[in-house]
Write a structure and sequence with these properties.
This is Transposase. By secondary structure, the protein is of the alpha+beta class. It contains 9 helices and 14 strands. The mean pLDDT is 89.
């Protein structure tokens, strides 16, 4: 399974905006219904219970497919259980409201039809840019989604056509970082373009001037540039190697520190996600290893002679006191990650 995201042509925005407003109406109705039922009976309603109250909505004038109404209900029940809340946040449709919810229209495979670069939902055909060749795929489920600039996309969960097996025969360790995006055990250093830092001054000027459209455009440019770079890096690694081992550096923990801006600008969490699903599709081994002490340990003699503590963060190169080997801090860590990954494969993964 993988997800394809395709751009809907702008001439259909008004229709999709109205459908999204209907989805918000269903969400808010079911949200309030479940909360009132909980207050009266002390019990939560299931998606099956809610279906009795939403039956016949499409025939009554709601311009949504019946399966979309079911998908909205199921999503609300799932998120309510996930966040353990009796009532979820209201979805706002008013475009003038600062808290307006981005458009979202879920559906199932039987609710749509794909033909000749168009997708049919209900009685409406929507033109799109079919860059994937949808006729080659079997659609399972999907949704129409809106971005911050008001542009619409369709996201389709599909069965993969076939595995694109890699031609690489080597294994590599990858040490993620902030100064550079990654350092590899073969000596390759992947630079960090720092796209947010590059456009930070332009973004600040647009924000001070109150130019909301320009602010959204700059944010989109930063996001698209970063994703393009990460896709190119991850694809190159998957095509060249048969096994990839990455340190378990946690972006979730680092964003709570003073380095939050740099962590988010680097995007190494997205890089790990891309590597994971691309490796699955290409038949490449992917595994995260515990990178504790990988900087401290010499990759040549396994001696604990490397820089440690906060005072050693600025030391980028060091000479091992046991064997005399001069080590680059990041490449040494990547080599140790590769060694730990190979040991894991030999010894077996404990979870399995």
């Amino acid at each position: 399974m993988k997800t394809l995201k395709l751009r809907i042509k702008d001439k259909h925005c008004k229709v999709l905006d109205q459908l999204a407003s209907d989805v918000n109406f269903v969400w808010n109705y079911v949200n309030d219904l479940c909360f009132r039922h909980l207050q009266r009976t002390g019990k939560f309603m299931s998606a099956f219970d809610v279906a009795k109250y939403t039956a016949g909505s499409s025939k009554a004038g709601l311009n949504l497919h019946s399966q979309t109404i079911q998908a909205v209900t199921e999503e609300l029940i799932t998120r309510r259980k996930q966040f353990k809340k009796a009532k979820l946040r209201w979805r706002v449709s008013d475009p003038k409201c600062a808290k307006k919810s981005l458009g979202w229209i879920p559906f199932k495979a039987s609710a749509i039809k794909v033909e000749q670069g168009q997708i049919k939902y209900g009685k409406q055909w929507f033109g799109l840019w079919d860059s994937y060749g949808l006729s080659r795929y079997t659609v399972k489920t999907g949704s129409f989604v809106q971005d911050a600039r008001g542009r619409w996309y369709v996201c389709l969960a599909v069965d993969t056509v076939k595995l694109e097996h890699t031609t690489g025969k080597t294994s590599i360790g990858v040490d993620l970082g902030l100064k550079d995006l990654a350092a590899c055990s073969d000596g390759t250093v992947i630079a960090n373009p720092k796209y947010y830092r590059k456009y930070e001054q332009h973004l600040a000027s647009a924000q001070r001037a109150g130019k909301k459209k320009q602010v959204k455009a700059i944010h989109a440019r930063i996001k698209n540039s970063r994703q393009d770079h990460l896709h190119k890096v991850s694809s190159a690694l998957v095509q060249q190697h048969a096994a990839i081992f990455v340190g378990n550096l946690s972006a979730k923990k680092l964003v709570k520190t003073k380095m939050a801006k740099s962590v988010l600008d680097t995007g190494f969490a997205a890089l790990k996600t891309m590597l994971r699903y691309k490796c699955e599709n290409a038949g490449v081994w992917f595994f995260e290893v515990n990178e504790s002490y990988t900087t401290l340990t010499c990759s040549h003699c396994n001696g604990d002679t490397g820089p440690s503590g906060l005072g050693g963060l600025g030391i980028r190169e060091w000479a091992c006191m046991d064997c005399g080997t001069v080590q680059d801090r990041d490449i040494n860590a990547a080599t140790n990650i590769l060694r730990l990954g190979r040991q894991t494969l030999v010894g077996g993964i404990p979870v399995l």
